[in-house]
Amino acid sequence: MPESRLSPSERRAVLSLAGIFGLRLLGLFMIYPVFALYARSLPDATPARVGLALGIYGLAQALLQIPLGLLSDRIGRKRVIAAGLVVFALGSAVAALAHTLELIALGRFLQGVGAIGSALLALAADLTRAENRGTAMAVIGLSIGFAFGLALLAGPILNGLMGVPGMFWLTAVFGALGLVLLYIAVPTPVASKVHEDAEAVPALLGGVLREPRLLRLDFAILVQHAILTATFLGVPLVLEQAGIAAASQWRLYLPALLVSALTVFPLVRLAERPGRLLPVLMTSIAVIGAAQALFLFPVLTAWGAGAALVLFFGGFNLLEALLPALISRVAPAGARGTAMGVYSSAQFLGIFLGGVLGGAAQGRFGPAGSFGFSLGMAAIWLLGSWLLPFEGTASTPHSR
Q1: What is the C-alpha to C-alpha distance for residues 400 and 342, in angstroms, rounded to an integer?
Q2: Max Cα separation, the chain?
Q3: What does the pLDDT look like over 274-298, one tens digit per residue?
Q4: Is 52 within 8 Å of 356 (Cβ atoms)?
Q5: CB neighbourhood size of 23 (10 A)
């Protein structure tokens, strides 16, 4: 059977939706490398409040991602997406005008209330044929990865040009551009229906939440993103202590991201070989833990910080590529959308927990606290992956 390709209308829909995804995530993530430094100047600054402000959008996303996807089945995809983009832009404006961490946290929460990821994926499913849906989701996934990498590089540069409030205003503009894309470039589907391979189905939630292998992967992505948020509560401070000004910190992020990008694809191929998946997974977790241990050094040089970032992004990006693929492999064919919805909610819950718990640890122990928290989470994750690997990762007595 000949390989199916995206038609012109499908290509237009997928690229436009990927653009909306990318713009939102670019705005959300580009403050990560600079926010901890900026927040210290605010009158109500404490590490715990900084962590809450950085991670609270994840709580709103975790709570609303699936419900808003289900609402889009009832009232229409574009209505839900448009409303979400308006709220996202409003939250960005609130954060831009804020002079306290409490108000920034409110703005970030409103950004998260615009939890339109599930509705966007459902609209992508409406606008593509079943045989092309995997390609569509892959393109959207690539846009998410690209936005994350670009955000880490652009954040320090934009901070030097416009400051964090200006970056929040720019994020509001991204929300408005997403709205324009939605109505100018994204086709309106002839009909919308529930796609079990692309969105959550309430009747299937119970089965997904009782599947041990899926729960282990949900736990993995929760821990991964808790570590991500907690790490960025400390990294900007450590880099500053190493003599790297905030506006120049992108020069360390760039080579670290490039090295991780070059290693991801060969290691993904390696993980696909029989008996290699579990060692690759465990090595990736161990590498993330090693990065946290290196960040804990009391006097970290620029070279040491660069090495820690290479380790962190190498392990993080490899797991970001492997874990969703494992969800698709483990989930029953008719429940993949539901499994991915729960997985996505766990990811955002991890962002929230990483901000709150990492911030609390930093408040008690200084910058080392957020890295110590992340190191502890990585150790628990590594031990759990060894004791309870899901079926198919290894031929051990634990693989059940």
Answers
A1: 21
A2: 65
A3: 888 888 999 999 999 999 999 998 7
A4: yes
A5: 22
- What is residue 4's predicted lDDT score, i.e. its pLDDT? 57
Residue type, 196: E
Structure tokens at 272: 């696909």
- Amino acid type, 393: T
DSSP class per residue in 280-314: HHHHHHHHHHHHHHHHT-SS--HHHHHHHHHHHHH
CA atoms within 13 A on the CB side of 267: 22
Q: Say which DSSP state 188 is in.
A: P
Residue spans of alpha helices (H) in 76-132: 77-97, 101-113, 117-126
Q: How far is CA 67 from the centre of its chain?
A: 19
| Token digits of residue 231 | 């790490």
Which phi-psi region, left, alpha or beta, contains residue 54 (left: φ > 0; alpha: ψ -120 to 50)? alpha
Tokens 């766990």 correspond to: 346
Q: How far apart are CA 255 and CA 287, in angstroms?
A: 17
Alpha-carbon gap, residue 13 to 288, rounded angstroms: 36
| pLDDT band of 331, cuts 50, 70, 90 | confident
Instruction: Kindly report, residue by residue over 318-329, the tens digit of the pLDDT.
Output: 999 888 888 878
Rounded to the nearest 10 degrees, what angle do helices 32-39 and 47-75 cross at?
130
Q: In 58-87, which positions are buried (b, 16+ CB within 10 angstroms) versus exposed (e)?
A: bbbbbbbbbebbbbbbeebbbebbbbbbeb
Round to whole Å and give the CA distance between 218 and 101.
Answer: 30
* Choice among 88-102, 222-236, 269-283 with the minimum mean pLDDT: 269-283
DSSP secondary structure letters along 315-374: HHHHHHHHHHHHHHHHS-GGGHHHHHHHHHHHHHHHHHHHHHHHHHHHHHHTHHHHHHHH
Tokens of 186: 């994204």
Q: Per this entry, what is the length of the chain?
A: 400
Q: b/e for 224-263, b at 16 or more Cβ within 10 A? A: bbbbbbbbbbbbbbbbeebebebeebbebbeebbebbeeb
pLDDT digits (tens, 9 = 90+) for 206-215: 888 988 989 9
